[in-house]
Amino acid sequence: MLGSVEIRSVSPVFVGRTAELDALREALSRATAGEPQALLIGGEAGVGKTRLVEEFAKAAAREGAVVAVGGCVEIGADGLPFAPFSTALRTLHRELPAELAEAAAGQEEELARLLPELGETGSGRHDEEGMARLFELTARLLERVATDRTVVLALEDLHWADASTRHLLSYLFRTLRTGRLVVLATYRSDDVHRRHPMRPLLAELDRLRTVRRLELSRFNRDEVGRQIAGILAAEPEPAQVDDIFRRSDGNAFFVEELAVAVFEGCRTGLTDTLRDLLLVRVEALPETAQNVARIVAEGGSTVEYRLLAAVARLAEDDLIEALRAAVNANILTATPTGDGYRFRHSLVREAVGDDLLPGERSRINRRYAEALEADPGLVPADQRAMRLASYWYHAHDAAKALPAVLEAAVQARTRHAYSEQLRLLERAMELWDAAPEDIRARLCVAGYAEAYPECAGDPATTPLGFLDLMTEATCAGRFGGERERALKITKRALRLLEHEHDPLRAAWFWIQRSRLVQSLARGDGRQELATAQELVRGLPPSRVHAEVLTNVASWSMLHEPGPDALAAAEQAVAYARMVTARETELNARLTLGGLTVGAGDVETGLAMMEEVRQQAATEGHTFVAGRAYVNLPNDLESVGRSREAVRVLTEGVAYARRFGLLDSESWVLGNLADSQYSLGNWDEATDAARAALRRGHSAKPLGCGAITLALIALSRGDNAEAARHLAEAEAHFGTHDPMPQQWLIVARVRLGLAAAEGRLADARTALAAALDAGIPPGTHRYGWPLLLDAAAAEADARPGREEALARIAGAVQRLTTDAPVWHAHAAWARAELLRAEGRDTGADWSDVVTRVEPLERPYDLARVRHRLAVALLADGGDDERARATELLRLAHAVAGHLDARPLADAVALVAQRARIALTADTTGPRPPADPVEALGLTSREQDVLRLVAAGRTNRQIAAELFISPKTASVPVRTTG
Known about the structure:
Elements: H1 18-32, E1 37-43, H2 49-62, E2 66-71, E3 74-75, E4 78-79, H3 83-95, H4 97-104, H5 108-111, H6 130-145, E5 151-156, H7 163-175, E6 181-188, H8 198-206, E7 211-215, H9 221-232, H10 238-248, H11 252-263, H12 274-283, H13 287-299, E8 303-304, H14 305-312, H15 316-328, E9 332-334, E10 340-343, H16 346-354, H17 358-374, H18 381-394, H19 398-414, H20 418-432, H21 437-442, H22 445-448, H23 466-479, H24 483-497, H25 503-519, H26 526-536, H27 543-559, H28 563-578, H29 582-598, H30 602-619, H31 622-638, H32 642-658, H33 662-678, H34 682-695, H35 699-715, H36 719-733, H37 740-756, H38 760-773, H39 780-795, H40 802-814, H41 820-837, H42 842-852, H43 858-875, H44 878-898, H45 901-914, H46 939-949, H47 954-961, H48 965-975
Parallel strand pairs: 1-6, 1-7, 2-5, 5-6
Antiparallel strand pairs: 3-4, 8-10, 9-10
Helix pairs in contact: 1-2, 3-4, 4-6, 6-7, 7-8, 9-10, 9-11, 10-11, 12-16, 13-15, 13-16, 14-17, 17-18, 18-19, 19-20, 20-23, 23-24, 24-25, 25-26, 25-27, 26-27, 27-28, 27-29, 28-29, 29-30, 29-31, 30-31, 31-32, 31-33, 32-33, 33-34, 33-35, 34-35, 35-36, 35-37, 36-37, 37-38, 37-39, 38-39, 39-40, ...
């Protein structure tokens, strides 16, 4: 290997960039204070992004920060999955071994997908949360490492990044909340054309207030002059500066190239074309050095010395001499680790690569592939499969490329780099027909295809087929978020299956289409599942058959719960047991438990769900366990056992975070917010709902968090905030996949908001739409509060309510009351309907209060106590008044504690009219704040005067002020 060499083309003086460097230093200062920082640095090729990062890294190191730099590795047109993160984590592993080990404790198998030095990767389930799980654990790892020291994570050349790297960076930028951490990334802005995959990421990050974006501009003339002076170690002639500034247009890299050309006396040979400018010094090298440069250009961003030696096929002395010439000419540079070479600037590498002839390019790639096959240890183990696949593919050798590409796809899947797995599988499909038949015949299902659960024989001997590739590609697309591509693959696969009799595989593809159309907001997936169910009807039990029935039962539980859903779940459990599909069985049993609860057999259903939760967690079925932590407490809440639900949900949050189940965690947090709301812990409910919005990555759990925030805001009288969260929830839920548990609670909030704003027609429209859609069995948890709020709104309304009251009464009669909480709601709703007719009594409301008191629902209890107090005051006795006073004070205290302003105002109004003091008066005498008060009237006379002004009759005044009509008439005559 070579020692250090003098580099003349790089100025030892850092020129300009004062504002940008100040911004980076400010970010470092904020991070050191415990506020994570995220920055994007963009600029055209050669403008000086790397030099800025280097200067910042030196400054950060001087202040005690640990700096970990990782670059996106390009091989041909391919990027290595997670390459910059793996490189940066290796630096942290080297610099902070104890801290990294402690931060990764318990999650080594998962994190080894990014950092193989942590051990073997786990063989866990591949699903749509797999990638998000890895991302969450990576974010927590970085936060923990940066707890006690400042860490700078610098990722370069993001324009070359693979999709998985882009997704991970986006996740970090969105979720980092704690730690002394700076994450910055650079990208080449002139490469980000309209179709570049970076474009959507930049648009997404622009919307995040936590991400700061720096765009590097070109140097002005003064800065170019200072740069030239640094390169030449002397002040340049003004005319020389003018010429270089004109030709370089202020691009720092072109300034360097032009300055060196002038210094070396070859200015007259230059042209103004970019390619010639970049190649001029390469073409001045000895022929052997030029050949080595061409080999390095095709090998990737970095080429290891031993691999280069194997490909160049030169005597070692000749190779070193060629490398020395290229390094001295500032064409190549040694890597920071000292074990390989790269071009000093990627622009030169691209120019050299573009200058290769097609046959020459294929020959070099073949040499790389042959060298790597002969000695796999020439490159790092985590890069081997991907690089070999790329070399053989670009060598245009289908026989060699197909198995190599398939092996690389397996490696990508192992790392949860599903987008890269999909790209490789699409490449394998492209190569399939070109590969010789005997090569294809040697490929077996085992190892390459695991998504399809049915295999006609031994996977180790069953030949791999084209449909197997499509099966894997479909799952890779789903898991990696490339759903549109996955949907196209399923369509193509089903067309091929029209000519083959394979109903099980066709049913499997229809299941995938069901999931995909729901994810893409193209429909509810029902028709696709029905097609799958029809395909397996009458066939012997199989894993696919069990999976179809499980999906049908799960879909029906959410959309059309009832006897048919229960039967499908029972059959799914039976079939899964017959074919020993344990995870499918647990999933089906969980659905069966929920449907059993909805059917009225509460204890049996809850016991079944708890058993599944324990078994799934013990056996390592994290997906099912995560789902159980969502569904079990949901059903506990549905029967009024909110405190038990909170206990399970609290465990569920910890479980979901431990295994990185982001959507499960978001669902759990949404349910936790719901149960805390019931228990009167509204601040805790708000925190949980906001956390649900931060943690989830799918739309529906985000909608649950938003709708709970809307309900809390409505209960607190903040109608504008309620409307904002309602709109947010409706956007997340969408209209393509309506579910009763969503449309009923949305209707409740919409109705409550309309009633609070006096828009009774809108409130009735919301109720009618919900009742037209129906309240299916098992959804009474959402139906009862809707009917109750509707009845209360109508009781407070004026004429025109008869139709609405009739519909509410009919729904109340039909709705299930299978638990004390719903018996209480039924009595409450009937009392509200009586109130609407003016026929409610203290006995009616006393029964409601008695039913609500044991339920641990303080807000509901305060509301019915308020109603009972009003009824007692209307009765007019002293005992009733004393009890009403106590009830109003209790309701007022709860309303104040919860900051439930509408309820507090309603209670205060009743107390004022009844002349009841809610609290002891300690304010002392005060001057009248109301002009009416200055007339010297009593408070009773003032109340009467206000109602007279509102046009009320004596009888109406008496009812509102809890006095007799005769008593009301006296002040009316007096004031009249």
